[in-house]
Write a structure and sequence with these properties.
The protein is of the alpha+beta class. It has helices at residues 10-14, 44-49, 56-61, 66-72, 92-102, 106-129, and strands spanning 7-8, 17-18, 21-26, 29-32, 76-80. The chain has 2 domains: 7-87, Roll (Flavocytochrome B2, Chain A, domain 1); 92-129. Strands 1-5-4-3-2 form a 5-stranded mixed sheet. The chain binds protoporphyrin IX containing FE.
Length: 130
């Protein structure tokens, strides 16, 4: 049977920010850590301060082990709507694409020109060989 992944906006996830209802967003996934607060070896306070925003950086900074990453699966309740991120929270790549589309820099034009140039050269070489 196909499983449907529940999608939450960052706003929705951030509303669960108390000891009795604690959701955390890590690497685009939403975790309900309410029942894990007391068991978390890093303490409950760090989890409570990680609510209401993307906690990926804090999670990675703590240097979690592979077993911790395995354990995460037990608490995953869904995924974050990628379009609900604010610009600051978007990944570097998305930000870059947005930037190129909305306000290209001279460097972007050089890269674009290089791509077009190489494509034209490759096309001409191909046609000559035929
Ligand atoms: C689903 C989410 C999480 C799980 C399952 C989890 C699990 C664990 C586990 C098993 C450890 C013990 C060390 C290890 O095995 O790596 C640990 C330590 C720790 N965690 Fe988490 N954690 C989660 C989220 C977070 C978040 C969001 C933060 C920060 C905001 C955090 C901060 C820490 C810290 C500071 C330690 C202690 C590291 C140390 O003393 O060396 N954890 N966590």
């Amino acid at each position: 049977m196909p499983t449907t992944t529940k999608i939450y906006t960052l706003q929705q996830a951030s509303e669960h920010n108390t000891r009795d209802d604690c959701w955390v967003v890590i690497h685009g996934k939403v975790y309900n850590l309410t029942n894990y607060l007391d068991e978390h070896p890093g303490g409950d306070d760090v989890l409570l301060t990680a609510t209401g925003r993307d906690a990926t950086e804090d999670f990675e900074d703590a240097g979690h082990s592979n077993s911790a990453r395995e354990l995460m699966k037990d608490y995953c309740i869904g995924e974050l709507d990628p379009f609900s991120h604010t610009e600051k929270e978007q990944t570097g790549l998305v930000q870059k694409i947005l930037h190129v589309c909305t306000a290209p820099t001279a460097q972007d034009w050089v890269v674009l020109a290089a791509i077009v140039g190489v494509s034209v050269a490759a096309g001409m070489l191909y046609l000559r060989r035929k």
